Amino acid sequence: MKRPSARRAPPPSNTAALDARLRAIVDSVKEPKPKPAPLPVPTIGRIVHCYGEDAAGGLTGPYAAIVVRRSHGLRLGLAVFTGATTRKGRPETEDWICSFSEEPKRSCWSWPPRVP
User: Is the bond leading into 104 cis (omega within 30 degrees of zero)?
Assistant: First the structure.
């Protein structure tokens, strides 16, 4: 017995129209956006930058700080080096508690910029 042959679609009569449809389909598919890299978790002993406020309410810093305590989330206890020294010439530190901010803000810390 002979098997019935499968029917084939007739050849396209207008390849330009098919090309346009195919191009529209390809263009409508969106590339997935890459996920941003997660922020490194600050650990005790890491160096971060932090910013303060002067008497006029302006932003001061960045100051180098060492993480001395972690609180909830990205809130840190910092030993901040403000540039002041003791009478014996040793660097003086201040204890601050700061939240994370990517942009410089008062009483916030951020990661130092990476140098290529």
Answer: no
How is 17-61 classified by DSSP, letter by letter? HHHHHHHHHHHHSPPPPPPPPPPPPP-TT-EEEEEEE-TTS-EEE
pLDDT tens digits for range 79-111: 898 877 778 888 888 888 888 988 888 888 999
In a 13 Å sphere around the CA of 10, the CA atoms on its Cβ side amount to 3
Tokens 């002979």 found at: 2
Rounded to whole angstroms, what are the CA distances from 108 to 12, 48, 55, 100, 105? 65, 10, 17, 5, 6
Structure tokens at 93: 């530190």
Does the predicted model carry a pTM greater than 0.70? no
- Dig out the tokens for 41 from the structure: 């978790």
